[in-house]
Design brief:
With about 120 residues, the protein is α+β, with helices and mostly antiparallel strands. The protein contains 3 helices and 7 strands.
């Protein structure tokens, strides 16, 4: 049975050369099926080609507000099927399906540093 490998990274900013270099190395070393990046601080549109070139062609995103926050859920469609059922500026909830595995729900939460916004969760 194929494994399902997930990588979570609170990257605190994506898009600079150091991030790209480190991300390439992490993907090469760990070969994740699902990749979750939090606190990206930039819109996904500025990085989409970078991830497409590494075979993460499907994504559910919550872009940051200004330069705060951001959650990206990326996956390899040849390995797993993901359907996001809920997404807000602080959470992505998705149904995960992989052949020969029982389906399950993934909730990715990145709470706002603003206390009043956290209460919305």
């Amino acid at each position: 049975m194929d494994s399902l490998t997930m990588m979570f990274w609170n990257c605190r900013g994506a898009g600079n050369n150091a991030f790209k270099h480190n991300m390439r190395e992490l993907i090469k070393s760990h070969k994740p099926t699902i990749l979750i990046l939090m606190e990206t601080k930039i819109p996904y549109s500025s990085m989409g080609n970078f991830f497409n070139n590494m075979e993460f062609t499907t994504v559910t995103i919550v872009d940051p507000i200004g330069t705060s926050g951001g959650i990206w859920l990326l996956w390899d469609t040849t390995q797993v099927t993901i359907r996001a059922s809920h997404a807000t500026n602080q959470v992505i909830q998705a149904n995960i399906h992989k052949e020969n595995y029982e389906g399950w729900i993934l909730c990715v939460v990145y709470t706002s540093p603003n206390v009043s916004q956290r209460e919305e969760l």
